[in-house]
Amino acid sequence: MYSAFRDIRQALFENRLTCVDLVKYYLQNIENQADLNVFLSVYAEEALAQAHLIDQKIQNQTAGRLAGMVIGLKDVICYQNHPLQGGSKILNGFVSQFSATVVERLLAEDAIIIGRQNCDEFAMGSSNENSAFGVVRNAADKNRVPGGSSGGSAVAVQANMCLASLGSDTGGSVRQPAAFCGLVGLKPTYSRISRYGLVAYASSFDCIGIITQNVEDNALLLEIIAGGDAFDSTVSFRAVPKYSQSLNFSQKPKIAYLREAVESAGLSEAVRVHTRQKLDFLRQAGYVVEAVDFPLIKYILPTYYILTTAEASSNLARFDGVRYGYRSPQAQDLRNMYVRSRQEGFGAEVQRRIMLGTFVLSADYYDAYYTKAQKVRRLIQEATNEIFKKYDFLVMPTTPRTAFEIGALTGDPIQMYLEDLFTVQANLVGKPAISIPNGVDEKGLPIGFQIMADSFQEADLLAFANYLAQ
Ligand code: GLN
Prior knowledge:
The protein is α/β, with parallel strands linked by helices. The protein has a domain at 5-245: Alpha-Beta Complex (Amidase signature (AS) enzymes), CATH 3.90.1300. Helices cover 40% and strands 13% of the residues. It contains 16 helices and 11 strands. It has helices spanning 5-13, 19-32, 44-60, 101-108, 151-158, 175-180, 215-225, 259-262, 269-284, 297-315, 334-345, 348-361, 366-390, 413-418, 424-429, 458-469, and strands at residues 39-42, 70-74, 112-117, 164-169, 184-187, 207-212, 254-258, 288-292, 393-397, 433-440, 446-453. A hairpin with a 5-residue loop joins β10 (433-440) and β11 (446-453). α10 crosses α13. The longest helix has 25 residues, at 366-390. Bound molecules: glutamine. Glutamine binds at residues 123-126, 149, 168-173, 201, 308, 420.
């Protein structure tokens, strides 16, 4: 059926399609592919009712810019009067009291929200195997992971259960699943999109991100959800360009690639070959393409995991079984109620990170770990800024290899953390990065190519990605 919003709009406005039919089509796909375990809630009746209203608006010529856009939300984005659990048992029964700013902006332009998508618990993970609701399966090979933590959001788009998804990206959670599922995944500049109504994992890293089939749809959604918001004190009030209208790329940018990433021994053969081909293509097209060294690469993951676990231990302290969510039925006294509720409510990976974060923030170790990691973050930022003084884009594969088999890495957290090696840099430094499809490996599994740009250069980033993706 349709994979581009442009085609859907045309069909709607030429009366060849109705929003009701469109929603029915997605609902059918959700039902037929329930084994992929993508949706935690499907808002079928509501979406159909909304579709009916929007069909009328189209007839009356009062429809918003997203009329015909059917969207899914990762289970970390609040939608008023709808369930929200962050993929966790600890939020059992929780219903959002308000909508995230991004949701308000989508609805104001007549988008239709079709449901809530499975994800790693509190967005901690790289494979969607950490969800309290079970693993999500990659539609390209059901024995393989979709990536994480926005795995449900990626497979929903991959398997035509909605046209686009909003996820969250703290260390790659939008780009890595997009890469594993053959999609476009954008993490914008930190603060470009309001975080109001996003369940916090690591607040100085968290970004809402967008997963789509193509760059144009991604640009349109960014244009609509980005920008100032009185409810988020960290959000940027810079003007939001019309990203979707500046997608024709005419400049000849200078491109750097990370030597350590492209030449890394950890890359699979297919990822290495496809990445090289992309670089060769750019050289032949007359671009300056140069290798840069980034000796700090070995500190990227330790810095990320110290700082994000510290922030997570603080952010997740609010889930205590007192005011909402899961409370242990076995509790005997107040202290025991906290302990049991958190022990029974959080999964193993979340508990590991809370403990690690609490440790690095503890009085005796604060300077040795937390303060030091903050300093290293600054060094990584400065080194990355140096690259952007000379180059417009920094490129590398999105992931060292393609989607792995379910269960392959669950026993080895370090190996799992290494999956994020190329994506976390953008979050440490707050810069925008996008993953676009870059062919498939010998098993037919999608490969991702990542492009990072300087802060607030999303317009150029999207235009360049659009050029490269075509
Ligand atoms: N996989 C990374 C982690 O587990 C990134 C997660 C994310 O971006 N939310 O922290």
